[in-house]
Predict the structure.
Amino acid sequence: MVILGIGLMVSAQSVLTEGVYDDTDSSIIYVGNFRTVTTSSAYSGSYVRTENTTDNSSVNFTFEGDSVALTVVRTTVGGAGDFCVNGVYCTSIDFLTDGITRYGVLYQISNLGPGQHTATLSRTQTGHMYLDRVDIGAPAPTPVVTNTPTPTPTPDTQVYYEFQDNDGNDISAVFEYRITAGDVMIAILLMPVLAFTSLMLINQSWSKR
């Protein structure tokens, strides 16, 4: 294991997109004093830890994706921190272990939605912070709005017929139905029949008088 001292505060920053990023990536901004620790147990052969256990060191980066995950290390001198996205969505990270050093410990925040997001890792408890790698998930799909046409309501209609029977009594008939194109055609075809039937009934009524 080799430890390299790196006290830094980087101002240039680009946006991380979908993919996996090592702790040495230039888009990950370390504020304060950090060390790079090289070991074959870490992703890509190294991880980063804070130089001391009490200052206001932090890790910051901007990304575009629906999820973000940090892979960290736990040791017997680890502290604790908050990992927050957009200053709202946060998860607590425990860097402390009571036994052997543990690698590949994963913390994830997901379902962030489309657009750019800002991530910050900051200390909340005395002890070292560690970072091994950053994973950015695929961007959230843009919602597709589908315009569903509103169906034209079909009116319910009542049709009344009044005529007399053979004995001269008035008869009222009510037919209730839902109009369709087929109904219209049938009505047109039946109109002569109904007219002829009405005339026959009227003639029979008059012939009896």
In short: Residues 8 and 32 are 6 Å apart (CA to CA). Helices lie at 181-207. Residues 1-11, 152-164, 171-179 have pLDDT under 50 and may be disordered. DSSP finds one helix and 15 strands in the chain.
